[in-house]
Amino acid sequence: MTIEELDRRFREYAGVRMLEGQGDLFYLYDPAADLPPERQQPFATIVTGDHYEKVSRLDEPGAWRLNLALTKATYTSLFGPAPTERNADWVLDSGHDYSARDTLMPHPFYAAQYWVAIVNPTGLDQLLPLIQEAYDFAARKFANHQARQSS
Asked: Helix H segments across 46-127?
């Protein structure tokens, strides 16, 4: 799987807007493309370098990481309770090797918010249900926020 294939997949979803920064891609559910900055929370990201952390070894040639925001129920069904202990670099102690390739694992920093990560995934089929959930969860949160604003 390539970044380009994954990017095309995300752009197929209705209401998705992509932002780019430092070569990284951030996918938001923003159907009108008008979310204020404080509400621009991505549901998926593709990170291409070590600008945020070093534990994933994204400085290696061709390395990149997909990150997905899941529901608590799905996250805990995959990994159990979210980790809360951090090391001196603020990396969460999940017991996973964050530099492992093609292995779904808790996100090194955002697992406590039920994010998962996979460095250099090779197959899209295993990830499609998780990508769909991340998208559906983002759309549901958006709809719930809209409903609260109009009531």
From this structure: 72-79
